[in-house]
Write a structure and sequence with these properties.
It contains 22 helices and 13 strands. By secondary structure, the protein is of the alpha/beta class. The protein binds D-mannonic acid.
């Protein structure tokens, strides 16, 4: 019997779901929370939590406590559903799967003590994170000691608000209780994500307790990882599809393409879940993988986001169906980025680029360019500027690589002039730079380059400045026609 749509997804509606809907293949009540995840957003729920879903059928000790650091929205949506939610796997047909691996959801701003209690629980042996680039509070390679959350947490480290603050306080409690530390596994799109997080945690810990910093350095590990799966944001159309398929309501389903990859450095300090048995690759060559993915998938994504939005295109698949954008992005990947990707062993950059282009073309995925455009000030450096730096060092051309960077500037300018706020932690600074632009490349590019956290140290390189100015000038008034012409010529 199918549950009526007025009902909500929960353990009591689970048994009545149609047979086509996959559901937990293990006894949820017998699982124990062994993972705390900071940043329980759609990406985590569509990616790592699904690997853990498979893992729980093999080993019941790794259920997840999902923590939202800033909002209570996920808790409010999932608590009435006992943590259950639907994953829609998009392809020629859509497979609905109810995921049960998130056993608890906490909103840290209101439940800080409960988060710290979880972090210091002996059963918890792994902390994973998807807090996006800005959540690391970095300035270049180091912790930004002037960041408001870090300043606050250094003053009151026992009641933190930042991810780094929580990690350190959790580790302090464990040390004091005689417990081993947890493995800290970053799952964000940052080059050397584990290394960056380790440095940030140690820099923070050193400032409050040097002994603690030494203990963390000596005992805790911070494996690097590379995560990949295209995950369009949830919208009402998805909620509707899920309600139709399940016969009951799910307040916050998630969706993603079928393709998924998770490569993790094999460096666990407190037990390693057998993730390799559920599709995760353990590797010691992670640095090559994360760079290749950031440069050959995320950078072209950002290029499409800014240049495509200027052309009034809405989704990645639509951009790929627009010949001038599709052929530009392919040249960008194959001719300008691939030569700057130092390949891991056995890795074929051209084949990898081809597979990514195929994924971008997938018409079953409505991945909005404006979603990818979020947080440009954080994404541009890790996605594009590293490639430009390497190309300059190797004496390779950078003109084409500068076009998406100029596209971002023009996008910011357009939004600022239209009075539309940007989803970006640097919104205020960007809007004031964008609103003061004149349309003259020299002055405008100079103003953008003064955004130190984005462009230093590259802004001091005369070759970069000149190429960026030309790219900005070539985009002209950034009207759809002007952008189209610029792309055709690039
Ligand atoms: C995208 C990524 O929104 C974005 O910035 O580039 O979320 C991308 O879809 C994923 O990294 C794919 O693994």
């Amino acid at each position: 019997m199918t549950a009526p749509a007025s009902q909500r997804l929960s353990s009591s509606t689970l048994a009545g779901l149609p047979g086509t809907v996959l559901r937990p293949a293990y006894d949820r009540d017998a699982t124990r929370i062994g993972i705390v995840h900071l940043g329980v957003g759609a990406f985590h729920r569509a990616h790592q939590a699904v690997y853990v879903e498979d893992l729980l059928a093999l080993d019941a000790r790794w259920a997840i406590c999902g923590v939202s650091l800033n909002s209570r929205d996920v808790r409010e949506a999932l608590q009435p559903q006992e943590g259950l939610y639907t994953l829609a796997l998009l392809g020629e047909t859509t497979q609905m799967r109810v995921i049960g691996s998130v056993r608890e959801v906490l909103a840290a701003r209101e439940q800080g003590d409960a988060v710290l209690a979880r972090l210091s629980h002996p059963d918890v042996r792994l902390v994973t994170l998807t807090i996006t680039e800005k959540g690391y509070c970095l300035k270049g390679e180091h912790l930004d000691l002037a960041h408001a959350d870090i300043v606050r947490d250094l003053t009151t480290p026992r009641s933190p608000v930042s991810a780094v603050g929580y990690l350190v306080e959790g580790l302090r409690r464990r040390r004091d209780a005689g417990l081993p530390p947890y493995t800290v596994l970053s799952c964000d799109n940052l080059p050397d994500n584990g290394g960056k997080l380790r440095r940030a945690v140690l820099q923070f810990a050193e400032r409050i307790d040097e002994e603690l910093a030494l203990w963390i350095a000596g005992h805790a590990t911070f494996p690097r990882s590379m995560v990949d799966s295209i995950t369009p944001a949830t919208d009402d159309a998805l909620r509707e599809r899920v309600a139709q398929a399940l016969g009951c309501a799910d307040a916050w389903p998630v969706q993603r393409e079928r393709y998924t990859q998770w490569v993790v450095e094999d460096a666990f300090c407190n037990g390693r879940p057998p993730l390799d048995r559920v599709g995760v690759t353990f590797s010691d060559e992670i640095a090559g993988y994360d760079k290749a993915k950031l440069r050959l998938l995320n950078a072209p994504h950002s290029a499409l986001a800014y240049l495509g939005s200027l052309m009034n295109v809405e989704t990645v698949a639509q951009a790929m169906a627009t010949p001038v954008l599709a052929s530009f992005v392919e040249r960008l990947m194959r001719d300008s980025i691939a030569p700057n990707v130092a390949a891991p062993r056995g890795f074929d950059a051209q084949r990898y680029a081809g597979a990514i282009l195929e994924r971008f073309r997938n018409p079953a995925i409505q991945h909005r360019l404006l979603q990818i455009a979020w947080d440009g000030s954080q994404k541009i450096p890790v996605r594009l500027l590293g490639t430009i730096t390497d190309a300059l060092a190797a004496g390779r051309p950078i003109d084409r690589l500068c076009l998406p960077v100029a596209g971002w500037m023009q996008f910011v300018r357009r939004q600022a002039n239209a009075g539309v706020a940007l989803v970006d932690p640097l919104n205020d600074a960007l809007v004031s730079v964008g609103a003061a632009t004149t349309g003259y490349a020299d002055a405008d590019v100079r103003a953008f380059l003064s955004l130190e956290s984005v462009f230093a140290p590259l802004s001091g390189d005369a070759r970069f400045v000149a190429a960026l100015r030309s790219a900005y000038a070539v985009l002209g008034d950034a009207s759809p026609d002007a952008v189209e012409q610029a792309l055709a010529d690039a």
